Every structure is written in structure tokens, then in C-alpha cells.
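Researcher: Next sequence.
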Amino acid sequence: MAASGDGDVDIDGCCGGTLFPEKSFRSWSAYGQALLETGPRLRDRVTTRSMDDTEVNEVRGRSGADMRRTLTWWDLIWFGIGAVIGSGIFVLTGQEAKNAAGPAVVVSYAISGVCAMLAVFCYTEFAVEIPVAGGSFAYLRVELGDFMAFIAAGNILLEYCIGGAAVARSWTSYFATLLNHHPDDFRVHAAALAEGYSQLDPIAVAVTAVICALAVFSTKGSSRFNYVLSILHLAVLVFVVVAGLTKANAANLTADFAPFGARGVFAAAAVLFFAYIGFDAVSTMAEETRNPAKDIPVGLMGAMTLTTIIYCLLALVLCLMQPYTEMDPDAPFSVAFTAVGMDWAKYIVAFGALKGMTSVLLVSAVGQARYLTHIARTHMVPPCLAQVHPRFGTPVYATIVMMVATAVIALFTNLTILSNLLSISTLFIFSLVAIALLVRRYYVSGETAASDRNRLVACLAVIVASSTATAAYWGMTTSGGGGWVVYVVTCAAWLAATAYLQWGVPKARAPKMWGVPLVPWLPSASIFINIFLLGSIDGASFTRFWIWTAALLVYYFFVGLHASYDTAKALAVETEAARVEEGARKPTAANTADGGCRFG
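Model: Next structure:
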């Protein structure tokens, strides 16, 4: 693929040519010159924000063919349920009840559900206002700029790859249960690899490949398949609740409700947030939704409400059936039914778990490909990944690339490593989206006074700093929460900053179609809870997170920055040329109206 002399970059044909067709990559000398301009280019990308219309029109147009608008709120609810209810409830419930929270794992699910619902509110407003496939990446580009959007984008892609890999490996575990085998019977031990990465899982790779093929062919077809799977899955969940309650023993729940204290409850909530991950994939389908203003709020919030209720019910039933000390960390529901004399029921549970995990993999495949598609539209990654197949109406290349990455991770990495790292990436992204929503409501470039902007920045800084201090102190102390004075100070600072934002800073914009209620309180609470839960995650997972972030920065400074900078400048040239052309046409139109000459 070639670029025109004026710097214009055309996506067509890039898959048959160079991966990066931008001006900075035409030659080694051009690349060297681009590297010398890294500082000014970085300042430009940090301070430049995209526009709603740019994301919805110009950026979306770089995919060639449009995605088909075939989805309704009904499809989105089932996509949401299919995306969320999967391996988390069937695997992590036993693990966290036994090792972190005890029967209070029910409370942990409720805390995670509230955190997820706050994030859903923020995502919904953005998805209605900016209905594109980019999801949170597009939202952050509009409100926080290219640089923050890229850091979030890298973690979004990591979130999806890790989430899909975790579910694929859990699929193998429940498949083994269905066949009366131990999961490791279907895995290959590679002694030369480190612990945690040595149990190779070829079945997870095969399942991922099949899901990829389905996601490539049709979004509506995927929706129908997901609808059928989700119906079967919900039927199994109803069975688990009803059958489990017939074997309930209240003493299992009340004897030692929170054996690990509040610290254990919040630590479990941070990990169990993994079980709610997936709803953001629904926001990426806004571009394929018939009526975003109606369908997205109903679809997203309806799915999350149902999911939270189901999770709390299932956790409660498990804790009533079996003492937390006897729960199996890998297949808790199947083992619990065996323990109460209903061994036959474990096959129904395993079947339902497989259905649920298949749905999660399918929706994840659809969502992650759309994220990558929009990222590629900005040329932060090779633009050929943005192409939409003219026949299938799906982003074929993006789907394949993401599923290959997911399959490689699923082949090597165990669930514990995956779930903790996944929770960090997701909580980080949700915090950024909540910050972006506050920026959207309180700041409009060229309209907001400098004094109001500065007050907004100060309030956001205090909200983030107080939330971080609370989380850090919680994470560093080893007792049930440490001295209460620190929490009083940090929570008071958060409360004061949010209150000042409410009454001391004027709002700059109101949502056009649907908006988050109780702004700034709900977004601010989302920031606080997300960051607080981060303080309950182990240090090793943070080390892996920072290594990944460092790798992202290296890529950005050497590749992504220059590709996106060239593309943005080329788009600016095109936009200016269009304005000039439009301006030249106006006199012609006026002359024509006045009876003057009509130019052909």
C-alpha cells in the first residue's frame, strides 16, 4: 500500500503491502527523522483529543465496508449474559470461598456487582453518545487523548486475551469432569517450562479456533447461537439453585460466615470481579445496534442486573450445600453435588458450565475483534486489521489475530495467574472510563473557562489520590484494615472533592440522549471502588501488569506514536481540504438561488 504525496493514508490494500504505510515508515531515513521528533509528537498526542463526529464518521469509515446494524436490546441482553456468566462463577467461587472469604463470598459477589454496575452506567452513556466498535478506546480518545487511550487499549487487548484464555482452560476442566477425568489428563506436561506455565492445554486451543470461525462468519448468526446457548445455560442455573436448596444446611453458612474478615471479603471481591468481566464487549456492538439510544441502556443494565442476582444466588446455594473448607477450588458445584449424594447432578452442572463458557468465548471473540478494529482505524496497530469483510460484515483479520493470541496464552498459562492479572487490567480501564465521563460532563474544549478547567483537574486529582491512598494503605497493612484514622482522612478527602465538583464546578455539557444519573457521585464512586479493589490484588500480579505496560510504552514510542501521528495529520489535511471545497461551493449555491449561472 502506498501513501499519497500530501501525506494521505489509504487503508485499502494494506494487507497486501507494508504493515505500516504511514509517511514515517517509508524508509529508514524517514523513520530516523520521526524518532528525532518523538518529543514534539508525544506532546501533540498527549494534548490532542478526538471528536465524537470524528470517531463515528471519519475513523469508522477507514474500515471500508460498514458493519451491519442488526442487533436489538434483546440481542444485547443475551450477549451480556453470555459474555459474563461463564467460568468465573463455576470456578472462582470455590477458590475464593475456600481461600479468601468463606461463606461471605456472597458479599464479595455483591461488592463486585456494585462495582461493575457503576462501570456499566459510565459505559452506557458513552456507547449511546459515541456508538462505534472501539468501546472504551474510542471514549478515552475523545476525552483523555491518544496517549491514555493507547495505554488503555493495550490493557483492553490484554484483558480480552487473558479472559478468553482463562475461560478456554476452564472449558477443558469441565469437559474432563463430564467424562469422569481429571483436567490434567487432557493436558500435556512440559517439564522444561516454569510452574504455572507447564500444563499445555491443546483442547483450549481447539475450542478457541472453532469459536473464531463462528465469530468471523456473522454477528447476527453469533447472536442467535449465543441466544440458544444462554437459554440452555440459564435452565441449568435454575436447576443448580433449586436442586442445591433441597440439600441446604444453614449451619454451613452461619457457623463461620467471614473467617478471613473484611480483608478476605474485599480480596475475594477483587478476584471475583473477573466473573463480571465481559459486559464491556456489549458496548463495542453499538455500531451494529439498530437504535443505540434505546437498545444499549436496556441491554447493558438489564444484563448486569440479572447477572448480579444470579451470581449471589449461586454463591449462596453453594455455601449452603457444603462447608467452605471442603469446597473444591476447580469444580466446586460438581463436587458439592457429589458430596450431598447427587453425583448424577455433576454432569448437568458440567454441561451447563460448558455451555456458559462457550457463550463467553463467543461474545469475547466478537468484542475483542471490534476493539482491535477501531484501534487499527487510528493506525496505532497495522491498519489492515481494521478491514471489514464486504460479504460477512465482520472484521475478519482482527478476529483471527486476537484469537491466535488468546489460543497461545490458553495453551500455557494456568487460571490463577490469568484471573489476577485480568482483574488489574479491567479495574484500571474502568477507572479511566469513569474519569473520562467526568471530563466529558465538566469540560468542553474552547468553551470551558480556564478557572473551571483547573478546578476540575484539582478535583479529579484529589479523587484519584484519596482512592489510591485508601487502597495502598489497605494493601500494605496486614491486620483487618489498620488504623481507622487514615481511612477517615482519605475518605473525607474523596467526599470533599466530589462534593466540590458537584457544587463548585459548573457542568459544561449535558448528555444528548441518555446520561448517567447522580453525576459526579456515581462516576466518582466507581473510581474509588475500582482503585480500592486494586489494593486487594497480590504484588506478583502488579509486577506482571507493569511489565506489560512497559512493553506497551516501548511499542508506542517506537511505532504506535509515529503511525497515529502521521494518520492524524493526514486526516487534518483532508478535513481542511473538505472545508475549503465546501466554502468554495457556497457562493455557487447562492448564485444559483439568485438566478446566476449553474456550474456543472
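Model: The longest strand covers residues 188-189. Residues 121 and 474 are 27 Å apart (CA to CA).
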